[in-house]
Specification:
Layout lengths: L3 H7 L4 E5 L43 E7 L6 E4 L2 H9 L29 E4 L12 E6 L6 E6 L5 E2 L2 H10 L17 E2 L6 H23 L8
The protein binds zinc ion.
Organism: Carnegiea gigantea
Subcellular location: Nucleus
InterPro entries: DNA-bd_dom_sf, Methyl_CpG_DNA-bd, Znf_CW
Length: 228
C-alpha cells in the first residue's frame, strides 16, 4: 500500500505496466493464463517478438504484464492484453479506471497484483494515443534499467523512432490513410526505481565506484588539499 501511494501522487492516473524479468515467470499469483504471456525480444534480431527460450547473458526486457490502478480503492487490476490496455490508457483522464470496468470484478475483490519489487514496474503516462492499426508500438528497457526507449514498427516492417521519421514515412507511403503524426507518441514510461533488480543496482554502483577510484587516483597528485 505504501508503495502505491507515492505513485498516485506523481501520476494520479496510475496507469502502470509491469515488466517481467527474464522468463516472465509469475509466482503464484493466481493469474489468468492469458495475462502471463511474455513476448521476448532477442537483442540481436529486430524481427517481431517471438517467444523463445531466454539466451544466457541477454535480458529480453519487454513488457510482460499490464496493470491499471483503480481510482477508488487503489487496487491493481491486470489488463489482459496490450490492445485493451492502450484503449484504457488513451482516454484515462476522461474515463478514470475503476475495478467495475472489469467484468465480474468489484472493489471488494482482492487486488490482482501488488506493486512490489518482485517485478520491475514502469509507470506510464495517461492519454497516449492508441497505436494506429497495422503499426506496433514497442518499448525497450535499457540494459542498465535507466530508461525505456520507444519506437514503432510500421506495416511494412520499418522502425520509426521519432515524429520526424513518422512524418517522413507517412509521406513516402501515401496509401496509408487516416493516420496522422499526432497518432504516435514517443513518451516513455518511467522506471520505478525501487523495483529495479538489486544485481543491476549493484553492478551500476560498482561501476561508479571503480570510476571514482580511478578519477581520484588520477587527480591525487595535483588535487589541492581542501582546507576547513
Ligand atoms: Zn476498486
Amino acid at each position: 500500500m505504501d508503495l502505491v501511494q507515492p505513485s498516485l501522487g506523481m501520476d494520479p492516473a496510475g496507469v502502470n505496466q509491469v515488466w517481467i524479468r527474464n522468463q516472465g515467470y509469475l509466482p503464484a499469483c493466481g493469474l489468468p493464463e492469458r495475462a502471463t504471456v511474455v513476448s521476448e525480444m532477442s537483442q540481436a534480431s529486430p524481427s517481431p517478438a517471438t517467444p523463445t527460450s531466454s539466451k544466457k547473458g541477454s535480458t529480453p526486457n519487454t513488457i510482460g504484464l499490464y496493470a491499471v490502478q483503480c481510482g477508488e480503492c487503489f487496487k491493481w487490476r491486470l489488463i489482459s492484453n496490450e490492445d485493451e490496455y492502450e484503449d484504457i490508457r488513451s482516454k484515462l483522464l476522461e474515463e478514470p479506471f475503476t475495478c467495475s470496468k472489469k467484468p465480474n470484478v468489484s472493489c471488494n475483490d482482492a487486488a490482482d497484483i501488488e506493486k512490489d519489487a518482485t517485478r520491475t514496474w514502469v509507470i506510464d503516462k495517461p492519454n497516449i494515443p492508441k497505436t494506429p492499426p497495422g503499426f506496433k508500438r514497442k518499448l525497450v528497457l535499457r540494459r542498465d534499467f535507466s530508461k525505456l526507449d520507444a519506437h514503432y514498427v510500421t506495416p511494412t516492417g520499418k522502425k520509426v523512432r521519432s515524429s520526424t521519421e513518422v512524418a517522413k514515412y507517412l509521406e513516402e507511403n501515401p496509401d496509408i490513410k487516416g493516420v496522422a503524426v499526432g497518432d504516435f507518441s514517443f513518451t516513455v514510461p518511467k522506471v520505478v526505481e525501487e523495483t529495479i533488480p538489486k544485481d543491476v543496482i549493484e553492478k551500476k554502483a560498482s561501476a561508479r565506484s571503480e570510476k571514482k577510484a580511478k578519477d581520484s587516483k588520477a587527480g591525487d597528485a595535483k588535487a589541492p588539499v581542501p582546507k576547513e
